[in-house]
Amino acid sequence: MHRKGSSIPSGPVVSALAALVCLVFAAAPLRAQTQVSWSNGQEPVHGLLYLPSGGGVHPALIVIHEWWGLNDWIKEQAQGFAQEGYVTLAVDLYRGKVATDAETAHELMRGLPQDRGVRDLTSAAAWLAQRRDVDPHRIGAIGWCMGGGYAALLAVADPSLRAVVINYGSLPTDRSSLADIHAAVLGNFGGLDRGITPDDVHAFQAAMQSLGKSIDVKIYSDAGHAFENPNNTGGYRAADAANAQARSHHFLAEELHPGRG
After folding, report:
1. What one-character DSSP code corresponds to residue 32?
2. Is 200 helix (H, G, I), strand (E, B) or coil?
3. Cβ–Cβ contacts within 10 Å for residue 114, how many?
4. What Å distances lie between residue 123 and 37, 78, 187, 243, 256, CA to CA?
5. Which spans in the chain are helix H?
6. How far is CA 186 from CA 11, 40, 94, 194, 229, in A?
7. The pLDDT of residue 14 is above 70
8. How confident is the model at residue 21 (pLDDT cuts 50, 70, 90)?
9. pLDDT tens, 106-128?
10. 37, 117, 179, 244: which one has the fewest Cβ atoms less than 10 Å from its Cβ?
11. Is 195 within 8 Å of 167 (Cβ atoms)?
């Protein structure tokens, strides 16, 4: 199910890309990240900034954490994208709190006002756009789980966003909200996910297509929720995770790194 005009590969090509993604993440240790702060217009917001090597102007990427918070797995994802040439900002929506069990994660997620989360993310995009090393016309976002839902909300709230990846996140349903999305959207979902069901995904895709939006979704039939995270010991699916990550990296390169897709 590819978006109109998509050249995202499949089959053996994606398998090769998946192997390359794994090599990129394993090739270099985590570089030092920089703690940064900015204002969402009402209060300070914090995050971790990862810079690519080399000077000049780069595309930028906002990384949005799962309901666990800004933990090591999310930091690894952010670092990996920086190694691929993005000025990468991992936003801390929980103000420094990180959960290690589902009960705490649920409490933290419920305690996050949605409007504040969206303000944090739109202000993050604005902060990146003002940096001298960022091309303000090539800013994207990627999120997983709760962060995938917020990536979708950010796409609605910020029409200047260029590309968004939604990994098994909740999806907007209001057509007027979907009409506000100008970013190209890629989604990866689990066919066994009981929270974001295949019917939800198909409805989102159909609504986006009817509005002429750029949309590409893939449903992994044997995967459930959070299948990309190896810490999800009961639901991690290595092959599907590698394929979804390869799709995400190729899509972002295609949309934000012209000539590298």
Report:
1. P
2. helix
3. 10
4. 11, 18, 23, 31, 20
5. 12-27, 72-83, 102-110, 114-129, 146-157, 175-179, 198-210, 238-256
6. 17, 27, 25, 20, 18
7. no
8. very low
9. 999 999 999 999 999 999 999 99
10. 37
11. no
Structure tokens at 91: 């936003």
Give the Cα separation of 249 and 180 in Å (integer): 24
pLDDT over 70, % of the chain: 86
Does the pLDDT of residue 27 top 80, yes or no? no
How would you write 122-190 as a 3-class SS string?
HHHHHHHHCCCCEEEEEEEEEEECHHHHHHHHHHHHCCCCCEEEEECCCCCCCHHHHHCCCCEEEEEEE
Q: How many CA atoms does the CB half-sphere of 82 hold within 13 Å?
A: 27
Instruction: Provide the sign of the torsion angle of the four alpha carbons 89, 90, 92, 97, taken in this order.
Output: negative
- The third-level CATH classification (topology) of the domain covering 12-256 is Rossmann fold (3.40.50)
Query: What sign results for the dihedral spanned by CA atoms 113, 126, 140, 208?
Result: positive
From CA 93, how far away is CA 193, in angstroms rounded?
A: 24
- Asked whether the predicted pLDDT for residue 217 surpasses 90, the reply is yes
Between 260 and 226, name the one with better pLDDT: 226
Rg (CA), the chain: 17
Res. 16: pLDDT tops 60: no
Domain locations in the chain as residue ranges: 12-256
Instruction: Return the number of other C-beta atoms located less than 10 Å from residue 19's C-beta.
Output: 12
- End-to-end CA gap in the chain: 18
Most distant CA pair in the chain: distance in Å? 49
Token pair belonging to 200: 């939800």
Strands 87-92 and 44-50: antiparallel
